[in-house]
């Protein structure tokens, strides 16, 4: 069972760009060439190794995958670096 975090950088502007990355081996992530704009950043533990977030079901019961949101909107500028974003899974 793979519980490696998958990170989603999702645009909230009109174009709604989405960038998906798996965590690197040193518990870091890197997303290059992001279109400037406002984004939300969230991550989930891909427990079923499907490559996409699993919402779960009631019958038969299957829990949703664990997820976490970065608590603030990111306003990314061209050629700027954003660092020290931490996630906690409970």
Write structural notes for this entry:
With 90 residues, this protein is mainly beta. It has one domain (5-76). The protein has strands spanning 5-11, 18-22, 37-45, 67-69, 74-76. Strands 1, 2, 3, 4 and 5 form a five-stranded antiparallel sheet that branches. A hairpin with a 6-residue loop joins strand 1 and strand 2. It is globular and about 45 Å long. The two termini are 18 Å apart.
Low-confidence stretches: none
The span between the termini is: 18 Å
Write down the overall geometry. Answer: globular
The residue fraction in helices comes out at under 10%
Main sheet?
5 strands, antiparallel
Tally of strands: 5
- Content-based structural category: mainly beta
Measured on Cα atoms, how large is the radius of gyration?
Answer: 14 Å
Mean of the pLDDT scores?
85
> Strand share of the residues?
25-35%
H/E element order: EEEEE
Structural topology:
Elements: E1 5-11, E2 18-22, E3 37-45, E4 67-69, E5 74-76
Antiparallel strand pairs: 1-2, 1-3, 3-4, 3-5
């Amino acid at each position: 069972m793979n519980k490696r975090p998958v990170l989603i950088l999702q645009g909230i502007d009109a174009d709604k760009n989405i960038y998906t990355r798996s965590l690197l081996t040193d518990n870091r992530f890197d997303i290059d060439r992001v279109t400037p704009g406002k984004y939300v950043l969230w991550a989930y533990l891909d427990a079923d190794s499907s490559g996409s977030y699993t919402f779960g079901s009631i019958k038969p019961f299957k829990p949703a995958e664990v997820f976490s949101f970065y608590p603030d909107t990111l306003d990314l500028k061209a050629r700027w670096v954003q660092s020290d974003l931490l996630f906690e899974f409970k």
